[in-house]
Design brief:
The chain is of the alpha/beta class. It is about 40% helix and about 20% strand.
Length: about 300
C-alpha cells in the first residue's frame, strides 16, 4: 500500500465518524476540497461508493460501514504503535554491545553494572572480552573500553576509571635464586614472562618512566602467554618476573606471595575509557550507560 492510500483511508474514517466534511477537515487540518478529492480518489480506486452525500449530511454506505469495521481497529493499532515508538526514543531500552579487555570488565564494568541494570531493566548488555583493539563499527559494537593511550582519534572517549600503574612482580622463590633488579635495564638478565599481543601478534615491550625519562625494554624468557591471568599465575608459581596491573598484584604483594620491584619506574598512566563513534544523537540507552560509567573524582 502506498502512503497516499493510507492517508486516504484515514481521511475516509474521519469523515465517516464525523458525519461531516467540515468537521473532518478541521480535525485533519486540511481544506474541504482536498478532503473531498481524497475520498473521491479512494472510491475510484476501489470502484465502489463509500459515502452517501446529501446537502445536509454524510453517512457511510453498506460498503463504507464494512470498511469502517476493519479500518478503525487497524488504524488504532498503527497509531498506538507509533506512539510506543516515540516513547522508546526517550526511554532507555534495547541491547548495547561492548568490546573490552577482561581486566576492565572485571574491575570497572561489572561493579557499576550492578546498579545500572537494576535501574534500567529494559536495557540488555552484551560484553565481548578481547585483548585486541577492535574496530567497533565493523564489529557492530555500540562502544568499546580500552586504555586511554590506545584510543582512535575519531572516537568520542569518556573516562570511566582512575589512573593506573603497572607492577613488576616475582615470587619469593624466584628472588631466592635471582638478584633484585634495580633498573629496567637489569631485566635483560632475568627470566621474564612475556605477553603476546593478540592484535598485532608481537611481544609487548615493557614500558617505564622516571623523572621524565621513558624506557621501553624488550624482555626475554621461557614462557609467553596471551592472557594476563595466566601471566600472573606463572609469576605466582615462580616461573619468572611479570608485568601486570598494580590492582591485580596488590593483594598478592600484601600477602607476601609476590614481591614488587622497580616501583619507582612505574609511573601512572591514563586508565580505562569508554569510546564510541560520533553521532548526531546518542541513543537513550547509550547515554544512560555513559553517565553510569563516567569516572568522577
Amino acid at each position: 500500500m502506498k502512503r497516499d492510500e493510507l492517508n486516504d483511508l484515514a481521511a475516509f474514517l474521519a469523515v465517516a465518524e464525523a458525519g461531516s466534511f467540515t468537521r473532518a477537515a478541521a480535525k485533519l487540518d486540511m481544506s474541504q476540497s482536498a478532503l473531498s478529492h481524497a475520498i473521491q480518489q479512494l472510491e475510484e480506486r476501489l470502484g465502489i461508493r463509500l459515502l452517501a452525500r446529501t446537502t445536509r449530511s454524510v453517512s457511510p454506505t453498506e460498503a463504507g460501514r464494512r470498511l469502517m469495521r476493519t479500518l478503525k481497529p487497524a488504524l488504532t493499532d498503527i497509531y498506538a504503535e507509533i506512539a510506543g515508538l516515540s516513547e522508546l526514543r526517550d526511554k532507555p531500552a534495547g541491547t548495547l554491545r561492548i568490546t573490552t579487555v577482561k581486566h576492565a570488565a572485571v574491575s570497572v564494568l561489572l561493579p557499576k553494572l550492578r546498579t545500572f541494570m537494576a535501574e534500567h531493566p529494559d536495557i540488555a548488555i552484551e560484553i565481548s572480552a578481547d585483548e585486541a583493539l577492535m574496530d567497533i563499527v565493523a564489529g557492530n559494537f555500540d562502544a568499546g573500553v580500552r586504555l586511554g593511550e590506545r584510543l582512535e582519534n575519531d572516537m568520542i572517549a569518556v573516562r570511566i576509571g582512575p589512573e593506573m600503574r603497572s607492577a613488576i612482580v616475582g615470587s619469593p622463590a624466584y628472588f631466592a635464586r635471582h638478584p633484585v633488579p634495580v633498573s629496567p635495564h637489569d631485566l635483560t638478565q632475568h627470566n621474564c614472562i612475556n605477553y603476546r599481543q593478540t592484535g598485532s601478534g608481537g611481544l609487548y615491550a615493557w614500558e617505564f618512566e622516571k623523572d621524565g625519562q621513558e624506557l621501553s625494554v624488550r624482555v626475554a624468557g621461557s614462557l609467553v602467554f596471551s592472557d594476563a591471568d595466566l601471566i600472573l599465575q606463572a609469576a605466582l608459581d615462580g616461573h619468572g618476573l611479570a608485568t601486570t596491573f598494580e590492582t591485580q598484584a596488590e593483594g598478592h604483594v600484601a600477602s607476601g606471595r609476590l614481591m614488587r620491584v622497580l616501583k619507582d619506574w612505574c609511573a601512572p598512566y591514563p586508565g580505562f575509557f569508554l569510546y564510541y563513534p560520533s553521532r548526531r544523537q546518542t541513543p537513550p540507552a547509550m547515554a544512560a550507560l555513559i553517565e553510569a560509567l563516567r569516572y568522577r573524582t
